[in-house]
Specification:
The chain is α/β, with parallel strands linked by helices and 736 residues long. The chain binds beta-D-glucopyranose (BGC). It is an enzyme of class 3 (hydrolase).
Amino acid sequence: MRKRPIVLLLSLLISSASVQTSAKDVNKPLYKDAGAPVEKRVDDLLSRMTLEEKVYQLNQYTLGFNHNINNLGEAVKNLPAEIGSVIYFDADPQLRNGLQKKAMEESRLGIPVLFGYDVIHGFRTVYPIPLAQACSWNPALVEQSSAVAALESRMSGVDWTFSPMIDIARDGRWGRVAEGYGEDPYATAVYTVAAVKGYQGDDLSSDRRVAACLKHYVGYGASEAGRDYVYTEISRQSLWDTYLPPYEAGVKAGAATLMSGFNDISGIPASANHYTLTEILKNRWKHDGFVVSDWGSVIQLVNQGVAADAKEAAEKAFMAGVEMDMTDNCYQRHLAELVKEGKVPVANVDDAVRRVLRVKFRLGLFEHPYTKEVKQEERLLLPESLRAVERMAEETMVLLKNSDNVLPLSGMKKIALIGPMAKNRADLLGSWSAHGRAEDVCSIYDAMHREFAGKADILYAEGCDFEDESRGGFAEALDLAKKADVVVLCLGEKRGWSGENASRSTIALPSVQEALLAALKEAGKPVVVLLANGRPLELVRIEKLADAIVEMWQPGVAGGKPVAGILSGRVNPSGKLAITFPYMTGQIPVYYNHRSPAREGRQGRYQDIPSTPLYDFGYGLSYTDYKYGDLKVSADKVKRGETLTVEIPVTNAGSRDGLETVHWFICDPVSSISRPVKELKYFEKQLIKAGETKVFRFNVDTERDLSFVDSDGKRFLEPGDYYLMVKDRKVRISVE
Ligand code: BGC
């Protein structure tokens, strides 16, 4: 009995609280309810928006100082509170939070702005360039580096990275070859998935993750003659065989967004291509995020000759399926007008806005629009991030030559360190290095001093510049070489020689660098050449003179440390090429997965140079010796839909532990359409201790691994014989 008043009081309190809550809920729009499903929130918000507010969501502006010299940033001031997105050039969250406050508090509906940026291989902790990453054959490292990039970006005010760049490229003259994962569609697809996982994790709303953007959809890597922004001639068959697979994998992995390319795809520019943007991406692959144009790729439809003016360009890009216009204001100026004129249905605008809002909700921006302002030391260049860069860089480097086991250097008391890259730091960052700084990088010179402290003296001379023809420094360098036991010659490319708008007519290094090598040979000492570059190089003359060559790529902030470890033997190189190194530039395009020619043997060859590349796709040496056993298949006859297993034992017959990658290829020798001479279908990297044997295994799913697509993406598995191949070994299986 005595309990009753308390119970009554409690129930009164509870009911008044629930009255208050529901009164609050009635006033709070559904889209602001964090507990409601995203689709309901999107619908609710959309139903409240005016056409003008919708159009704002489909435009991207810029904020902060733009470092990309190819793109001129527009004036920052006076950004409207309603804008959808900005490219954020700052490295700290304050500026972001300022603009976000304006959006949240001054716009009618309080829709947060989405902040994007080009975080291509790291934000401040710069990783090896993606082409190098691909040579690691270790997708776990790619996932890890992408996760570090995501953490640094999100904590610095960036919600969305314009990465990964997954354009298949077979032409080293094209500067952007550095930004992708090489020439193979399967390998690129695997790395794409790893990058998307690393950026996005399982929960985009985490304050350590960012939305990914697959770019440049699609075929940009086929740029004619390796020039940028030009036409690409891509048959539908090649589109499906070569250029689309990484995108399909990335979409399946949940990539939030894509960026449409600059290139014209056989007459229909990528940013006005309904087939790729709508029929494939949205209708078949069911992508429910959005597509942003590349910088200016909407207005450039005028230059490309498919639109008369900005208004028509807006109509074409939008109706093809580009939801957001990056910086060129075509949508801002014309979309509402196009709707009013009946040229663009409002339903399409709604669909586009819905896609953009969906990504914003998934990123948790409505609940957490601001970035916590923590000190740089708490988010950038964290010790574990730096350790991860070094570990990755070690696995990306490719030992191309090692005559008489000159490497690792042992018993050398005097090392002559020569060349324009030896003391350089900035160029080791590579292109698109976001907020990376030269001062964060350890030069080869510093790393060699540390690595060989107490073991060898390091003598230094620059020898020559990267490209200045002056040979004034050769004599000093030669004197030094004569005094030393070995010459380590650091050659390569400046970072600006690759990346956007950085095409070169030849992939050879400037002649002065090759001449320096020739001059140093006169000392009669072994010469080890270290190469830091952003593209495959023409190495035919260097190969003849060098005793050893290490392709160290552009390793980011790890700088010279990993390569110094390779020279000392602390690190056993394990990288293998993810792109073919032509014998000479004139062979381009040259790639491993080509079709068979009509005539073989001595016909169809160049008269003046060999027809095979200098270094094949998948090539790379180690300090240990791997012996491959025989291939063993679980069944040599299978029915469609069945699986089988093929194995190969690999023994480390040397005296050092090593990481070895096995590449599994298939060949379909007779088919209703011609197929490549071989196609990579699987790869695996394992640690094999000295003396140990490891078995590498490929579980073949006949439908997935032996089928091919036709020119409209339809998959076929034809009965007949197929080969499964590893190096020079092959085994035949037949599908009934
Ligand atoms: C590049 C893109 C980049 C964009 C934004 C363009 O010029 O082609 O790759 O994401 O600029 O900076």
